[in-house]
Amino acid sequence: MRALPICLLALMLSGCSLLSRSPVEPVKSTAAAPKVEPEKPKVTRPAPVRVITDATELVGKPFRDLGEVTGESCQASNQDSPPNIPTARKRMQINASKLKANAVLQHSCEVTSGTPGCYRQAVCVGSALNISSK
């Protein structure tokens, strides 16, 4: 009677070893082959918006004023990183590019305190311009 459990155990172990694969045999994947997506067209980026700090650069050049644009960088609390004027300037350029401008005449960039929602804030203000090459 004691031999029966030992024989069953030996039979189960030998049966499991028959199911395992040899490491030499390649394993065939049962997953479906990944679908190849068509190549996406390359997105052309708009030309960068140039920042002009001196209005005398515009003398003699035909341009169109597209409106006022701003860029902001906010320090939400005292523990956050301080506001950054270059970040505010870059955001002003991005907002100008949304208006199809190719230049921004920068009026001012300053760091202020007491703005609702910000401990301190860097703000850049300028005019979005479309300068003609004529």
From TrEMBL:
Its main location: membrane. Keywords: Cell outer membrane, Disulfide bond, Membrane, Signal. It is a lipid-anchor. It comes from the Bacteria. InterPro entries: RcsF (IPR030852). It holds the Pfam family RcsF. It is found in: Cell outer membrane. Disulfide bonds join 74-118, 109-124. Residues 1-19 form the signal peptide. Essential component of the Rcs signaling system, which controls transcription of numerous genes. Plays a role in signal transduction from the cell surface to the histidine kinase RcsC. May detect outer membrane defects. Belongs to the RcsF family. This is Outer membrane lipoprotein RcsF. It comes from Kosakonia pseudosacchari. The lineage of its organism: Bacteria, Pseudomonadati, Pseudomonadota, Gammaproteobacteria, Enterobacterales.
